[in-house]
Every structure is written in C-alpha cells, then in structure tokens.
Amino acid sequence: MKVRFTRWYNTVLTALLGLLGFESCESESQLEYGVPQADYIVKGVVTDDAGNPIQGIKTKFVHDHYYGEKTAITDDSGNYEIQATSYPDLYNCQLIVEDIDGEANGGEFLSDTLDLSTKKPVQIKKGDRKWYEGTYELSQDVKMKKK
Q1: Percent of the residues in the chain that have a pLDDT greater than 70, as a whole number
Q2: Under 8 Å CB-to-CB from 19, ≥6 apart: which residues?
C-alpha cells in the first residue's frame, strides 16, 4: 500500500510541476536557470614604463562567478579586449597580465594582477528587465615593469 501511494504521489507531483513550468534550462547563454547574468567587455592598452605599447602579452579575466577562462593577447598597439558572460557583479574580479613570449616583445616583463572589483563598469546595452542585466564595458590600462 505504501509503495502504491508513493508511486501515485510522485506521478501527481511530477505532472503538477510540469504544468507550472518547472523544468531544466538547456540554453548555453544562461549560467543557471533563474540566475541573473550580464555580458562584460574588458579592454585596455598594455604599455611599458616608458608608455610604449607591448604586443604579445596574455591578458586573462578571472571572476569568481564565471566558470571558464577568458583570455586575449595584445596586438601591435598593445590593445586587448576580452568578452565574457557572468553574474552582474564584479566582486572578486581580477585581470591577470603575463609576458608569454619573453624577449620577443622588447624585453621580459613581470606578471601583474589587477583588482577590477573597485572599478565601475559602464553599461553600453540595457538588459531585458528579467534575468539579463545588459552589456557592461570596463576599461583597464596596464603598465608593466621589466624584470
């Protein structure tokens, strides 16, 4: 009798939750079902102490609420741009810059980690007033020191 009641109860509960719209989310653009998200564009210029742009520097966006790694390599003008989707806050968010090619870019430079938590991003695209908060841009220029 108890097995029959449990089976009946589970069937009714499953049907009720299905009618109410509780299901899993299979969209890759959303981190989790019902979790706010925002797109971030982190960009800037990497220069040496003299203000000369450095090419071939690896920039990495690190955020506690982002799963995965987003990186970019600076171009001839020292510019980088990283795009990532994450939760709409910058708590514990960092930019890591590393010299990955040694002497090839004009010298060997020390790696650096910059805290982006204190920066105020600029909203460049409005959200849908539901779970998507919009697109934010964050500019961070970096001066690297030689080894």
Answers
A1: 82
A2: none
